[in-house]
Amino acid sequence: MGKLQALRNFNAFPHAEDHLLQKTFSGAIVSIVGLTIMVTLFVHELKYYLTTYTVHQMSVDLKRGDTLPIHINMTFPALPCEVLSVDAIDMSGKHEVDLDTNIWKLRLNREGHIIGTEYLSDLVEKEHSTHEHDHGDDHHEDSSQKKQEHTFNSDAEKMIKNVKHAMANSEGCRVYGVLDVQRVAGNFHLSVHGLNIFVAQQIFEGSSHVNVSHIIHDLSFGPKYPGIHNPLDGTTRILHDASGTFKYYIKIVPTEYRYLSKEVLPTNQFSVTEYFLPIRETDRSWPAVYFLYDLSPITVTIREERRSFLHFITRLCAVLGGTFALTGMLDRWMYIIIESVSKSKTRSVLR
Questions:
Q1: Measured distance CA(307)–CA(48) in Å, rounded
Q2: Is 36 domain-assigned?
Q3: Quick count: other Cβ atoms within 10 Å of Cβ 270?
Q4: What is the reported pTM?
Q5: Which residues does 254 contact at the CB level (< 8 Å), separation at least 6?
Q6: How far lies 72's CA from each of 195, 222, 276, 323, in Å?
Q7: Quick one: 277 and 345 in the same domain?
Q8: Are residues 146 and 284 in the same domain?
Q9: Residue 120 falls within a domain, yes or no?
Q10: Does one domain contain both 93 and 231?
Q11: What CA–CA distance (Å, rounded) separates 13 from 49?
Q12: Which of 24, 45, 118, 264 yields a CA-CA distance of 20 to 30 A from 244?
């Protein structure tokens, strides 16, 4: 019995008898407020525990031989689909479009509604003599030499008539789809370079009249992961009584996103700078929208993680225990203040 009595002396939570406890109205208010605070903090801590966070790591990119997917979704409000072409060229000067390339062109009316579609399935690989990114004039001349002779046949005249009619009706074109290119530096561009140079002259009456105003709805180099920001999404460039070439210099950063479920999503982030080159009447080059890209040798790994359960319990005990102790102190202070005020009133009445 002596040992049990000694053990009771270590009790940190002694209990008073019920008739010695006094329940007050102020104590009830403090208890309700404290309980509300504790429930709110518990919900907050639970959400904080269930929410994942990301950890970024960098390493050397070791990928070789993979392809680079380019997702395009752009609108050209001032160019009909018949004159618009999509080209992709890598550092070797090779015009490369894989067989599984999937590009659609949507004809748009003045209000932006779709009035027709075209699927680009006849793209083939072509060799170009230049290895430079900026080759607008040479590329146009080379491609024009591979066309038919510099004479207008009935098909060319019909095309010119159709395009002029479309331009008179303010027809536009929306280009969307995926280009799979080699994983090397290169560029892809949207322009009128696919036209015979004499046909282009008949349609536009000079390169300075080609309006490459455009809206970039979506441009990405792989699937999207939570929190990704593609800086060109929503970009609008409208020209009024002017013409020129837009160049977007893109630095691609290979990225791996690792979900909490251990699933790995390979994709790419990128940064971009922009340059505009006005076209003069005497220039031989034709306006275009260029996207010149290069790949970073560093890959970024983004990993989802969740806080440990012990961390959650520790924070929960600290928050709830602190709130309980604070409300207890507040209740004691309020009781003392109320008792002091009531005693002073009683004394004043007796006097």
A1: 9
A2: yes
A3: 23
A4: 0.71
A5: 61, 63, 266, 268, 295, 296, 298, 299, 300
A6: 21, 11, 20, 54
A7: no
A8: yes
A9: yes
A10: yes
A11: 31
A12: 118
Cα of first residue to Cα of last residue in the chain, in angstroms, is: 55
47 and 159 share one domain: no
Examine the domain organization and report whether 218 and 285 are in the same domain.
yes
Residue 102's pLDDT band (cuts 50, 70, 90): confident
Which residue, chain included where needed, has tokens 């960098």?
Answer: 58
Q: Is residue 71 part of a domain?
A: yes
Could you tell me the pLDDT band of residue 137, with boundaries at 50, 70 and 90? very low
- Burial string for 43-77 (b: 16+ CB within 10 Å, else e) reads eebeeebeeeeeeeeeeebeeeeeebebbbbbbbb
Same domain, 201 and 164: yes
The total number of structural domains that make up the chain:
2
Does 169 share its domain with 242? yes
Q: Which class for 298: exposed (0-12), middle (13-18), buried (19 or more C-beta within 10 A)?
A: exposed
14 inside domain: no
Tokens read off for 253: 């950063």
For 55-75, write each residue's pLDDT tens digit.
999 999 888 778 889 999 999
What domain range is 328 assigned to?
24-51+314-350
Of 263 and 17, more confident: 263
Pair (154, 261) in one structural domain: yes
Rounded average pLDDT over 283-312: 91
